[in-house]
């Protein structure tokens, strides 16, 4: 007995085998932890299950220790009939552990089956049952790797990617990218187009394109049969989710079998009371394998040479000849025809696409109709189509995205955020949160924006971008140093990320460190290794030169941008992309004839869109005070154009037109009755809003608007110039200080640059005032 009591507590624990059994407990527990993690990943269970398990695992350590130590004494009752204290401790510990697990680590993703209402093809409301809010599943369907000895069969790998993507898209909560959709990410990473990179690079592309899963499938032929092997991976951790092993003489049937394997394994399928359309892949594009080849070759040709539209059309038309009912083939005849300015022919092909596309599942028909309404400029039908699409397929983000600018103008930012929250609730969690964040930053709801980012980080911990978006909040608040600190850390982690580098250049430019901004951009252009990087740097270089009034140099940079950009973008798209900035440059040096030339060139592709381009360009001229001549009949036609977008756009036109006519009282009335919608719409042209108040004699409000932009470290010198104008008769010393900042930006401006000439005139007046005072 004395020898027992003389032992140290460590020796007693060792004799009772407490350390040994605890080690076994932790070893077994670690194995169970991995199993729980596997289950949550494989079956998309709540992300909090692992946290709950860890809580119970560690909280039970005291109970396990006591159980081991007193194991030989834990009889149910003593002689007196009372329970021993170790038993109380063990029971209490277990209760506490499971109560805590039940109360803690709960969130939105733990919700059980949810009932969602949607509209079917007949317009009837039906119910959809889904296990959780994370309904939308995104899959990157990479080009199938050709393991045959015939390289001429490489096209089939691309075609199979598109087939798999299209057939998976029949299930409404699926979103897929085929090899065509993944093409831009290849350039960003410097990879050759239409090749099969290694698994690591595929995962990188899948993550950059924000896909939950990605496929890596190869094909070969054996005894006249196609043999498909491969895997579907999780983009989150790179683990295999589905093993693909299919053999069939018919590649279409094989794709259907692969689709079914994926359907069976990916969790949370949408379940409705109605039978869901699930057509075989042979009916979705063309069951004619030769037509499929010509169609695929047409798409590959387009992506490799976007300006070679004649060959693209020729190949697509050959596919149509082989299969006149191929709706997608007609669509991709219409698209390049429109790109060549053959609008009427494009409309005819688009209508054929809709006609033959009537046999497709409703979800796959929307993009056909979108094209027709887009190229025929039928905005009313386009808007109705998006509203219908949102009701029928609330899980798709595309209709919400397309309705976004319309809601902002017609209903205001608050209503727009309600729209996006609806998208999030219906399963578009990732894209919805990112869009909501942007709206909150735009609305200057910085606390809410940060909360949205925090939720995004919790929901998608492996997605890139998190910290850079925190930098956005700091930048918007004018906290340049804090924003720059985050971006510099990101640059250290990823020195090849051009987005970080251009953002840093913007911050320097805003902070009036113009030399550093230019040095960073020039270095980026010199060291660019991909087409995407070069285009990004050229665009911002052109922007900096434009803001500095260096018109000729800026136009040259944008010309270089176009020349480089048409290697991956059709010419008509590239011309519309640079139209507004080039028109702004020509307006700023009073060359309206050049603006007309640009509008004529762009209108070759879409004559009916000319009025839209012209209206927006003329409005921009008024905003910046270029004093361009605007004909009454031309601008009044803009009113009819804006009406097609809704009441909000009509009010916007009334404001701009009233300003044009010098009716500043009416401008003020419109702004006051509008309850802030148009003000927020014109947030990026605050100097224009300030000018309206200034010309109404409301100097304080005008000054407040400009001061806010300056506090946020605007990169627009117009704000500093406008503040100098406002202060000209109030505080000439402060006016000179603000004018000096504007003149620092415009120190190398072209002599004909109108804002620079006006600033010089103001400088002379301020100097006269100073001389008079002395």
Automatic annotation (TrEMBL):
Organism encoding this protein: Croceitalea marina
Gene3D superfamilies documented for this protein: Tetratricopeptide repeat domain
Annotated InterPro entries: CellSynth/LPSAsmb/PSIAsmb, TPR-like_helical_dom_sf
Protein name, UniProt field: Tetratricopeptide repeat protein
Keywords, ordered alphabetically: Membrane, Repeat, TPR repeat, Transmembrane, Transmembrane helix
UniProt cross-references to SUPFAM superfamilies, sorted A to Z: TPR-like
Transmembrane segments: 21-41, 53-70, 90-107
